[in-house]
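job 3f2a | input accepted
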Amino acid sequence: MNVSSPSQNGSLLSSRDSYNDAVIKNFIVIALGLTINYINGTLIHTFRKHQILYANPRYVLFIHLVINDMIHLTTVVTLFVTSYVLQKINGTLCCIIISFAIFTTQNSPLNLAVMALQCYITICFPLRHSEICTMKRTYIAIGWIWAMSSIAILPDICLVVAMDYGKLFTSTIYCERDNLLRHPVSKTKRDVLYSIYLVVIWIVLFYTYLHIFFAAKAARSDGDLKKARNTILLHGFQLLLCILTYVYHLIVRLLVYLFPRNYLHVIFVSYIFIQMLPRFVSPIVYGVRDQLFRQKLKKHLFCGFCFKTRLAGF
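job 3f2a | predicted structure (314 res):
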């Protein structure tokens, strides 16, 4: 993962991109960010209006994922635009933005792994679901997600303070992870930590969804089997997109090596597909496809349309 890459790439783009290319790329990033955040905001508003949703652990985990995605999009879009407009910003502000970017990037696959476990318990242990998946345990799981993500950034910040004596936080820098967390220990820790997370999350994914698939197959219902298969494929695709952020810097290096003449465009396209696209998939997989949430969302949108129509009539 390299959440700083938008900024790093942005500094390269701002010095080499033509004016028209810079405007177009910033317009695309801002438009996508606002669109996805608007969709996610609508899902959050629908969630808040219906007790049946916010009293269910499944939807609490989903909305936590949506809120996390909104924070992530806001931070990475801010980094991207700032790299063109200001290029260098205060080290303290950069530290805050980078911290939120790393937190939210780490949270997404961990949250998806917890949702996979919750789905596994629902399908394979229906009689014990209400006993195991309580609201209290759901909020504890969310707390653990943030605690695990903190391992990826808090020790590095402490190392920066200890080595630079806080001088970095009073200077202006290009806001990228490698500029902020420059110590070799931080890079080594990142590679080791992300490798561990990558292995653990994929083990959880395969274990839970294989059991879900076999449970649906044992039910001997073609409809349940097809639904389980589609769910596994969609969730696996989304998780794959999120996990790509763990190897983002490797992917960019490979693509730049393969397409050296178009490396600026390659970096930008990689940024769109790896940093932004997964946040567009979440509402579709867990919101629109879910029957109960889709029903409440339609009701909310219909009521909003009727209210606007009445206001237009006055």
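job 3f2a | The first helix runs from residue 5 to 16.
job 3f2a | closed
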